[in-house]
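ok trying again, last paste got cut off:
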Amino acid sequence: MKVKRITRISIFISLMCATAYIPPPIPIPFSPSLITMQTVIVNVMALTLTPADALTGMLIYFFIGMAGLPVFSGGMNGLYKIFGPSGGYVIGMIFAVWLMSLLKGKKNNYIRYLLVTIVVGIPVIYFCGMISTAIYIKQDFLTLLAASTLPFLFGDLLKCVLSAYIGVEMNKRLE
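nice, full thing came through this time. structure:
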């Protein structure tokens, strides 16, 4: 790996770790998940790195948390977080970052980036999050939807708008 690639991946891993704390994660009373800025980093990582590098960064982040460092939302780590009610979101981020990076295209295009984050990123993360939440909240589909996706939707749409802008600007400067 070239130094530039390693540096870019490392920066995104660091940002994933930092945004688990900054701003302080916001709990939702009826949901096991927290609101963080990690979605922005996942999106920007996908929009600025190659699919292999984005996936590598997310897998390293995942294994750092699994090794015991408190890098997941709310300062969590380990198997409890991954196999807990909100662990699916972390798993979803791994799939989402890779898929978004694959589908972002070769051109630096805000509209395409926005669509990829909204149409691919959010659904993949939410789907995986809903699965892990469903295991713990044994309720009907609407209750599950209310607990695992609806509280986050508006904020995540705003994060996609921000991510697409940052992705375009970063790619301009990285070229």
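cool. The CA atoms of residues 30 and 152 lie 12 Å apart. The helical segments are 3-18, 38-48, 51-66, 78-82, 87-103, 110-136, 141-148, 150-174.
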